[in-house]
Amino acid sequence: MTMIQDFISAIFYGVLQLLLFALIPLTWWLFTARKNHSFFVWIGLHKTSVKSKARLFIAISIFVIIMSTMFSVIIPLLLGNVENATTQKVGKGITAIPSIIVYSYIQTGLSEEVFFRGFIGKRLMSKLGFIWGNTSQAFIFGAIHSLFYITQIALWRCLGFGLLVFIMAWVQGYLNEKVGKGSIVPSILCHGTMNALSGIVATINA
């Protein structure tokens, strides 16, 4: 597959996943909150109102550095040779970078954050409060990711991977609500940047 074909394919699947992940939240909003809030405000897809953009940038940067380091060291130990989104990029070279960027920021960063932090997280927090709501969304996110490998690796490895994803999701929820003032833009940037860095490093260092 050529670079252009790979890029077009990444856009297609990225937009498709985004539409699918936005369908349930959009339907929920239409029946429950349409009269009170616009969809984008309700889901948290808006500019952050934080006064200090520098503080937000520093928080996002620290998160990305710490989590990227943890993932690059721990995930290979947990998953071993099992194929994942990062290992699929190995050996493709720098021509794969455009498709990696699209995959990272649209297919995973935007679509997953809209559904998990914007929809599930905010609904749970409104019912359970920030601590329990954020913990619940992070648990769901970690559990779903660990289930992908439940039949491929030992249970303790699967649980370890789920715990790492749980920590990432919890901190992202914190960044959105406590630093980003309810906007999910911080977690979109974190999620997308982490995946992009992992993919680029994998394909360049192959």
Whole-number mean pLDDT: 89
Please give the number of β-strands: 0
How do the helices and strands follow one another from N- to C-terminus?
HHHHHHH
Task: Write down the Rg.
Answer: 17 Å
Distance between the termini: 18 Å
Low-confidence stretches: none
Helix content: over 70%
**Class by alpha and beta content:** mainly alpha
Globally, the shape reads globular
Biggest β-sheet, characterized?
Answer: none
**How much β-strand is present in the residues?**
under 5%
Helix segment count?
Answer: 7
Quaternary organisation of the protein chains: single chain
Tell me about this structure.
By secondary structure, the protein is mainly α. Helices cover 76% and strands 0% of the residues. It contains seven helices and no strands. The longest helix is centred in the middle third of the chain and has 32 residues, at 97-128. It is globular. The mean pLDDT is 89.
List the helices and strands and how they pair.
Blueprint lengths: L2 H30 L6 H5 L9 H27 L17 H32 L1 H18 L7 H25 L5 H20 L2
Key features of this structure:
206 residues, mainly alpha
Task: Write a brief caption for the model.
With 206 residues, the chain is mainly alpha-helical. The protein has seven helices and no strands.
